[in-house]
Backbone:
């Protein structure tokens, strides 16, 4: 027992040390790049004129120092072309420059000023304008140069963790990489629910999350004179610079105070570690960690975690951290009548254009209400007037499929266009692109083209229609979980960090953000009351309805000609995901060969299909056993007659039809032969 405690301390300390190595007295300098915001290739502008708004997140309620924007531009101009770029910060012009002919790279650095600390972002706008020549008798529409804002363009700033004096400020300042420290003694079902919901929320916001055990105070108090033993090295973790810009601790008050004492002893009394909870609260502030740190203490659950994320939380002050009753959900923009484009990232919807403007939107299927499915796009567009009499063109793309192209002949009048969404087009995450084109005046000695505004109006929305069918794909589980979801776990998984990691990543993709989340121990007796996510090894009463039973031995996926596409027999770390149903309640069933979960399991993002195989690299294969007739799952060699009948079903059907035809013809001949002759 003593050796086990020493081993636990060794491993926990090795894991936590990189995360808490920051100097509390040193300002925390951060950088948010375009790549971090989801622009892996940067932003490219071209044509006669173009404009792009980019919102860089900043920690609200936290003073920032040395705030600046570093813009890296790669430009190329054709021979004889002229172009310029303008940079605006929070809609105020801050820099403009003419571009040189040829290909060039240049950097522009400008400082920023925050007027309102409550604002959690800064808006950067890059505008592009180009022309071929001053001769207005020349057509300006030739393909020309471009300007690319590099994905390494970034907003940098520094914060002083010592100035963070409230939970709301600490939450906003957590940064892009967050460590969640959980109790070394294991979690109960309520804490498991809280950690899962917390991690899923951070993952949805695009943060990288690491879940680590807190070093046990009991282990720290073990006999210091115990003999040394050889222990395997702990798994490598990212360095401080790579991993942690904030931390959240989830454990009892006693365990966190014990941990603080342990850290003080390790620091020799030099560090000022403290837990500030303002009088017995469930949520507190951890000070002295060198990074923004929050403590979730006794009594924390998934509903109280929403205190950190709901719309009303900015109203809370330092004394409002104790939550004894559930608060009402914030008013939602989404209802059964539709999902407004404002919920899809539209913003103000205004574009300044000469020849082309584009509005990119993103529809996550988890936004769809329960019992509904998307039916159409209802677009309200104010295209603005043009200088000439030529009609404008509107194009609507969904998942890179052109669904509608229409001519807008009525000048600047508001246009209302309905675009039906075909079945099978949508998936888990859906890209919507609305493109407006104008015929720019220019050439033939006409006046130079001018930019004028166009706007997608707030009435635009995704309309919904009732849907009572059972989920047929993984992504379709999300609407059924809109009013609640249940995690089914084993008793051992309450103590398993890998199980929390997997649960958080599945919940982030499938469970809507505002849906209640409950946790039950799957011991073969408890029944989920809401759509469920069943972790490997957990059991429910009876046997859930599954597309494929994988407990018969070797498993492989083959095409209809018998060629093996994927052989998963005995694959270490393999996970199987299937759509399931238990007493009519839909869910997701996860299984591994030994019931264990890999600690390296990434975000899986199950999309289309009802059966999928995944490992540490992600989803290996996903398919539909009902609609997809190109592949089939073979379990061992005991498929027997069922597999043989499935393989030769067409031949058997034709043979049976021929046999019935022969029998019918024979019976008809006997009837004619045996009937009585006419008098």
Residues:
């Amino acid at each position: 027992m003593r050796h086990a405690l020493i081993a636990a301390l060794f491993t926990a300390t090795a894991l936590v040390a990189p995360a808490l190595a920051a100097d509390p007295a040193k300002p925390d300098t951060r950088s948010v790049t375009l790549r971090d915001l989801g622009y892996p290739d940067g932003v490219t502008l071209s044509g006669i004129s173009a404009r792009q708004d980019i919102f860089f997140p900043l920690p609200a309620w936290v003073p920032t120092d040395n705030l600046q924007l570093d813009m890296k531009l790669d430009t190329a101009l054709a021979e004889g072309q002229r172009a310029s770029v303008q940079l605006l910060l929070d809609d105020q012009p801050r820099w403009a420059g003419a571009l040189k002919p040829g290909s060039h790279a240049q950097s522009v650095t400008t400082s920023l000023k925050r007027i309102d600390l409550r604002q959690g972002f800064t808006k950067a706008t890059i505008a592009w304008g180009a022309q071929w020549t001053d001769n207005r008798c020349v057509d300006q529409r030739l393909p020309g140069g471009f300007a690319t804002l590099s994905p390494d363009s970034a907003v940098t700033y520094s914060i002083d963790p010592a100035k963070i004096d409230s939970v709301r400020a600490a939450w906003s300042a957590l940064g892009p990489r967050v460590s969640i420290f959980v109790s070394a003694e294991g979690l109960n079902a309520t804490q498991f629910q809280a950690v899962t919901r917390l991690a899923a929320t951070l993952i949805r916001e695009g943060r990288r999350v690491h879940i680590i055990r807190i070093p046990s105070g009991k282990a720290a108090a073990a006999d210091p004179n115990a003999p040394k033993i050889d222990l395997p090295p702990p798994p490598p973790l990212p360095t401080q610079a790579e991993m942690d810009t904030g931390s959240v601790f989830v454990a009892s008050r006693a365990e966190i105070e014990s941990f603080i004492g342990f850290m003080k002893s390790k620091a020799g009394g030099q560090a000022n570690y403290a837990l500030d909870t303002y009088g017995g609260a469930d949520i507190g502030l951890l000070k002295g960690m060198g990074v923004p740190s929050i403590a979730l203490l006794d009594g924390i659950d998934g509903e109280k975690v929403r205190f950190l994320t709901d719309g009303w939380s900015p109203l809370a002050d330092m004394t409002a951290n104790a939550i004894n009753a559930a608060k009402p959900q914030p008013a939602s923009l989404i209802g059964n009548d539709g999902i407004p484009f404002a919920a899809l990232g539209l913003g103000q919807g205004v574009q300044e254009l000469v020849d082309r403007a584009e509005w990119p939107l993103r529809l996550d299927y988890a936004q769809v209400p329960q019992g509904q499915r998307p039916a159409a796009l209802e677009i309200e567009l104010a295209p603005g007037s043009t200088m000439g009499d030529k009609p404008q063109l509107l194009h609507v793309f969904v998942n890179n499929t052109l669904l509608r192209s229409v001519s807008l002949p009525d000048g600047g009048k508001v246009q209302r266009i309905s675009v039906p969404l075909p079945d099978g087009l949508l998936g888990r995450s859906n890209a919507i692109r609305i493109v407006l084109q104008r015929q720019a005046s220019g050439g033939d000695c006409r006046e130079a083209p001018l930019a004028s505004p166009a706007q997608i109006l707030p009435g635009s929305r995704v309309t919904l229609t009732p849907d009572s069918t059972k989920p047929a794909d993984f992504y379709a589980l999300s609407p059924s979980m809109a009013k609640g979801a249940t995690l089914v776990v084993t008793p051992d998984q309450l103590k398993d960090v890998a199980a929390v990691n997997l649960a958080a990543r599945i919940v982030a993709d499938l469970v809507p953000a505002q849906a209640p989340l409950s946790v039950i121990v799957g011991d073969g007796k408890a029944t989920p009351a809401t759509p469920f996510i069943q972790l490997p090894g957990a059991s429910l009463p009876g046997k859930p309805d599954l597309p494929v039973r994988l407990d018969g031995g070797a498993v492989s996926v083959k095409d209809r000609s018998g060629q093996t596409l994927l052989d998963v027999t005995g694959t270490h770390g393999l996970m199987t995901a299937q759509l399931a149903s238990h007493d009519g309640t839909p869910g997701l069933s996860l299984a591994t060969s030994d019931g264990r979960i890999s600690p390296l399991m990434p975000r899986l993002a199950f999309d289309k299909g009802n059966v999928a195989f995944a490992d540490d690299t992600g989803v290996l294969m996903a398919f539909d056993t009902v609609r997809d007739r190109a592949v089939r799952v073979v379990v061992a060699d005991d498929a027997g007659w069922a597999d043989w009948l499935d393989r030769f079903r067409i031949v058997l059907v034709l043979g049976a039809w021929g046999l019935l035809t022969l029998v019918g013809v024979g019976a008809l001949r006997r009837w004619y032969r045996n009937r009585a002759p006419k008098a």
User: Anything to note?
Assistant: The chain has eleven helices and 36 strands.
